[in-house]
Amino acid sequence: MKLLSVILPVYNADKYVSEAINSVLEQSFSDFELIIINDGSIDNSRDIIKKFQDNRIIFIDQPNKGLIDTLNIGLSLSKGKYIARMDADDIAHPKRFEFQLKAFREDEHLVVCSGGIIAFSPDGYRKKRYYPLSDADMRNELLFNSSIVHPLAMFDGDIVRKNNIRFDRNYKFCEDYKFFYDLSKYGNIKNIPKFLLSYRMLPSSQTSIGSNNSIDRYNKISSIHRIILNDYNILLNESRSKLHYSLSLSSEIEKLQISNMLIDDLLNYSRFLVKAAKLNEKLVIISLEATIGEKFLKIIFFHIRRGQLKTLRKLFFHKFTLLAVFKRLIRILKYE
């Protein structure tokens, strides 16, 4: 039995799938099975995949079922102690698996890890993304959004199988957020301070498609927020739920209609959240304050360019903002 199973769903990715597969097959760690599932592609993806002759590949060719069902089929087929995800349009660092498996060896309680990515697009855009590293920082980010990079995730397959953790159809386009939160209940989570994936940004990506229906997105993500916050005994009314959601995604922060009243509402909500978290003693408070501060930094970044300097002044030297600046600088310095 292989130590690692890699799940690679494919749908109409003939321009990129060969590069993605090669980046997996050429890994420095080689004891894995690569489960490639062609989910009813109508381009040349199937023919390209079939050209690969490697006994580590398990090729499944199926009618279109959608990403969530395809991922769950991959989970069912996986036999490795560990399971890694890979997308058909991304490129893995040559030592990705080696670094991630090392993290599992060093922490017997680790259940999932990912790392930093380099986002790029055909128009020349290229940007490093530095994700939270520690268990505490990642759990606080999970209050708002997933802190695990889905196509870079590696997780404990035994725990997934034992607890029947699956991707949920009810959370299409944010299924990874729910999945990784469910998994986080069973052990430690971390990100490795290395850029282990080149993440291709395309209009056809799940993230881009999922951003189109704002009401559906709000309902699904807010539902996950309530599940998570309820587990910490933090209960939100509808107005606080909307404020929480407005801080969860960069796209939502960018759309905020900045006013003195909104800034006051956000500051009041942040105080409420920290106070409520102190009561349950499950979250690291200084980490939560820095996580909220990162949301304040994004508000400043997006809206200072729109002539909102005077309105934003309450956020500039707020304790949470300054803490976020400090922690972010430390995080950047740790990345390689």
UniProtKB/TrEMBL annotation:
> Does the entry feature the keyword Ion transport, yes or no?
no
Q: Which GO terms describe its molecular function?
A: hexosyltransferase activity
A Pfam family this chain is assigned to: Glycos_transf_2
* Top-rank taxon, per record: Bacteria
Looking up PANTHER family in the UniProt record yields: GLYCOSYLTRANSFERASE, UDP-GLCNAC:BETAGAL BETA-1,3-N-ACETYLGLUCOSAMINYLTRANSFERASE-LIKE PROTEIN 1
Q: Does the keyword Transferase apply?
A: yes
Q: Where does the sequence pass through the membrane?
A: none
> Which residues does the UniProt record annotate as the domain Glycosyltransferase 2-like?
5-142
This protein is called Glycosyltransferase
Q: Which Gene3D superfamilies match?
A: Spore Coat Polysaccharide Biosynthesis Protein SpsA, Chain A
Q: Which UniProt keywords apply?
A: Transferase
